[in-house]
Amino acid sequence: MKNNPHLDERWSRRRFLHSLTLGATGLMLAPSLLLGGCSGDDEEDKPAPGPSTPVDPAKVGSVAIIGAGAAGLQAALDLRARGVEVKVYEAANTWGGRVRSLTRWADFPVELGAEEVHGVNSILGRYVREAGARYVDIEGTDYIFLPPLLRSEEQAATVREFAQAQALFEELEDLDEWGGADQSMFDLVRGRGMADITLPWLNAVLANEYGTSLRRIGIKARVDADANRVDPGADALLADQSMQQVLQRKFESVLPLVQGNTPIVNVRLAEDGSVELRDRQGRVFNHRRVIVTAPLAVLKANKINFEPGLPEGIRNAIARLGMDPGMKVILKFRRGFWQPNTGSIYGAGPIPEYWATAVGRGREDRYLTAFVHGELAESLIAAGESAGVQRILQDLDTMFGPGKATDNLEAHIWMDWSAEEWIGGAYSYPSVGSSGVAMAFEQPVRDSLFFAGEHTHNGGYYATVHGAIESGQRVARQVLDTGR
Ligand SMILES: Cc1cc2nc3c(=O)[nH]c(=O)nc-3n(C[C@H](O)[C@H](O)[C@H](O)COP(=O)(O)OP(=O)(O)OC[C@H]3O[C@@H](n4cnc5c(N)ncnc54)[C@H](O)[C@@H]3O)c2cc1C
What we know:
alpha/beta; seven-stranded mixed beta sheet; five-stranded parallel beta sheet; 14 helices; 18% strand; binds flavin-adenine dinucleotide
């Protein structure tokens, strides 16, 4: 059902299509997506929203942005629109961060990271419209493996245990508050007597979509984190353009400001309020202010040293919020062996969720994306690419019949986001006991050091592209306030 933005949103509320360790398959990003290959056409843009008091760019001073993902590029765009001097330092040789699209591996754009627009009325939905991109308009049917049978969602709903799990899922999705102490989703579903047979599906919809596993996500933390959500409309998938193309069109004017291959390892706030950055090669860059959009896992691993050390609230947020390994393994078969117009397939083995990647996008429905986070991703990564792919094929054989997948694979992409040195995992999630801690990211340090990125979004859209974009808008407003 995720494929139709106008249908029932129950199952598609936060469906993230994921994965990458570009294997030996010779995958290439389109040349225009590499840094240095972008045109610098100026784009008309609305000034950053904010109070009408004029901003003095000289008073703001030069601003360094660490990270050229959606958050960093949006902040750059909004600051440039007010005449502020900006430089973006990016560790990788491409921009986009967790938005990374392959345009030549299939006859449709393959998304290694973000794939779904979580709300056609969100700011990302607006960028999609500006790019003139189309959404997929086919309704897919979901399938659930309740051993020994793979059943359509409708058939599964006739199984008593699954109907109970569905009812619990809907109850949890509709919660506005959680009065009790925090507990893991695992303890919650166990306490509510859910049958073993339903746990893989509950893990898929309550935890895997959030980037983790049932034992790690907190019910109270999640309800609290989602409490301020404003409904941005139905979820939707892009049909004819990649996510990176949509962003490229929007951010074209600021891409020339991005300096690639520049991992910042030290941020020093000087006594006079200025900022000194040092990259891994020892190069030094001086600015008046800095915005850090590095992913939570990079901050957790202390890959950037801060002098002086960060305030306690920010350290607490970095420690308490979760960010686990996340993978997409994209499988290209000689022919599809699943039902036409399949949406998602919920397994009971190493992969919580697969989806038919090409439905509504490509000519041939012979691609599946395996999407896995948390403990199951850790186990797959530990197995290694070759054994990991075998596990996945055997899992599919178990559901569809002997040899259906194993004898039929043509190629695959193994995308492990935890192996990306400057990303380190999938996306942030509300781990048990983390209620409210992310608010600390909105507090600037000495009006010199600011944080943005999906993990800093306090309006319920952490872990999304539009949440990252909104965090970039928020931080730009804060930086502009220093020039009023
Ligand atoms: C597999 C997967 C599937 C997803 N699916 C969806 C989806 O369907 N829909 C959706 O809305 N969202 C999805 N997301 C989440 C979405 O991709 C992210 O929330 C969003 O792209 C994050 O943007 P960001 O700017 O906060 O961070 P990033 O995009 O990670 O950008 C941060 C940048 O900082 C750079 N960097 C890090 N450290 C340094 C340093 N020290 N110096 C210089 N540069 C540095 C990194 O290289 C990176 O480019 C998915 C993510 C993954 C991994």
